[in-house]
Design a protein that fits this description.
The chain is of the alpha/beta class. It folds into three domains: 132 residues, Response regulator (Rossmann fold), CATH 3.40.50; 163 residues, Rossmann fold, CATH 3.40.50; 126 residues, Orthogonal Bundle (Helicase, Ruva Protein, domain 3). The strands form five sheets. The protein has a five-stranded parallel beta sheet, with helices on both faces. Strands 7-10-13-6-14 form a five-stranded parallel beta sheet. Strand 11 and strand 12 form a beta hairpin.
């Protein structure tokens, strides 16, 4: 919410006080309504929504606490600031317990008023954003981007700028940083937002079937093609086509993809019929494509077609202020999904989560929290529970003479032994991918 567009209601039977508040707040750019009595203010509130309300605690027609209760019933989202004299401080404290934001003692300065109103409006803004987030979670978990850090603020600023255009976007960053979520958000905020968002997982498709997956095929075009198939390009018609880990596409398919990106025309496998497609292209990769161009595994001309707008996702270790928010988000998510009732994460356990570098990024953090929700028994996640995390996280990390790296090394060795050296199962238990596990094994000289 833009503070300067805020509606503020002043309810006070003292005309001098009403006028003074109006002058101070109007100069700040706020829209201000005045009410000379509690009942008049309640009548206004029935017609108009206000972001903040200044309420005198002592008025002749209605007790301030009773008026506060009625305000909370009419509009529980508004923030109420109690105006009180010296003799009613105790009542003001009681009003805060009843749901008021804060109180303002008479006499007060213009700065006191401006500062407290600004704080109230900020609290309302955060509450509305959290409400919006919960609604978005119910609609589609895939589209939720949870953050509060400056690096992600910059990313989202770019997203909001590029989304309304039809420009091709290349998203780079380590595995698990949320490249797919950003691609989905660009789509949602675009004019194509109500059209399909089709993902091509370039890391899992079989090379020989890649062309068929992208462009489709006609019946009899190759062994096993016993029916016509619609490809991803056609499925994404008028929408967005997202190539996840595009560096995994072979050179032969890259050449055909280049034509599709340049001309927005495709042909099915086994057919020369040209199909015009209207799709927006977003691609993502965790590799350095300039290096791939040098070693000959990626076409330079395709790279320049894709790299119109570049968004570089920061790793989680560079946005650590997001970890508490993400951890709580995943706790709530898996509480619901797994029918658990954990109440939260203790500050000590959260500190350990924040201290970890999370080489697997947000994906590793999510896997870790899910595992903790499954295995923890208490009402809160505590440092002792983090031994289940499959990472360096351990209650011993606070008191042991071992370094955090030693703890991680020992835990990896123990997990490897538990799975008889099977790397895929070990990586899964640790909440990381095989590549990250290989890097750790090499770093710690683990055979």
């Amino acid at each position: 919410m833009n503070e300067l567009s805020a509606n503020i209601l002043v309810i006070d039977d003292d005309k001098v006080m009403r006028d003074a508040c109006q002058q101070i707040l109007t100069r700040q750019g706020y829209r201000v309504e005045l009410a000379a009595s509690a009942r008049q203010g309640l009548a206004l509130l029935e017609k108009v929504s206000f972001d903040a309300i200044l309420l005198d605690l002592v008025m002749p027609d209605l007790d301030g606490l009773e008026a506060l209760k009625k305000i909370r019933n009419i509009d529980p989202e508004s923030e109420v600031i109690i105006i009180t004299g010296y003799g009613t401080i105790q009542s003001a404290v009681e009003s805060i317990k009843a749901g008021a934001f804060h109180f303002l003692s008479k006499p007060f300065t213009p700065d006191d008023l401006r500062h407290l109103v600004s704080r109230a409006l900020e609290k309302r803004r955060v509450n509305l954003e959290n409400l919006y987030l919960r609604q978005e979670l119910k609609k589609d978990e895939r589209s939720v981007l949870v953050y509060q850090s400056e690096p992600m603020d910059r990313i989202m600023d770019m997203v909001t700028r590029v989304a309304p255009t039809d420009s091709t976007v290349l998203i780079t960053g380590e595995s698990g940083t949320g490249k797919g979520l950003v691609a989905n958000k660009i789509h949602q905020l675009s004019q194509r937002g109500r059209r399909p968002f089709i993902t091509v997982d370039c890391g899992t498709l079989v090379e020989t079937l890649f062309e068929s997956e992208l462009f489709g095929h006609v019946k009899g075009s190759f062994t096993g093609a016993d029916a016509n198939k619609i490809g991803k390009f056609e499925l994404a018609q008028h929408g967005t086509l997202f190539f996840d880990e595009i560096s995994n596409i072979g050179l032969e398919v890259q050449a055909k993809l280049l034509r599709a990106v340049e001309e927005r025309k495709i042909s099915k496998v086994g057919s020369h019929r040209v199909i015009t497609v209207d799709v927006r292209i977003i691609a993502a990769t965790n590799k350095d494509l300039t290096r791939a161009i040098k070693d000959g595994s990626f076409r330079e001309d395709l790279f320049y077609r894709l790299n119109v707008v570049l968004i570089q996702m920061p790793p989680l270790r560079e946005r650590k202020s997001d970890i508490p928010l993400l951890a709580q988000h995943f706790l709530e998510k898996y509480n619901t999904r797994l029918r658990r009732d954990l109440q939260g994460i203790t500050p000590e356990a959260m500190e350990l989560l924040v201290r970890h570098d999370w080489p697997g990024n947000v994906r590793e953090l999510e896997n870790t929290v899910e595992r903790l929700v499954v295995l923890s028994s208490g009402p809160y996640l505590e440092p002792g529970d983090l031994a289940f995390a499959g990472t360096i996280l351990s209650a011993a990390s606070e008191t042991s003479s071992m370094s955090l790296k030693d703890l991680e090394r020992d835990h990896i060795i123990q997990t490897l032994q538990r799975f008889d050296g099977h790397k895929s199962e070990t990586a899964r238990a640790l909440g990381i991918d095989r590549k990250t596990l290989r890097e750790k094994l090499r770093r710690y000289n683990i055979e």
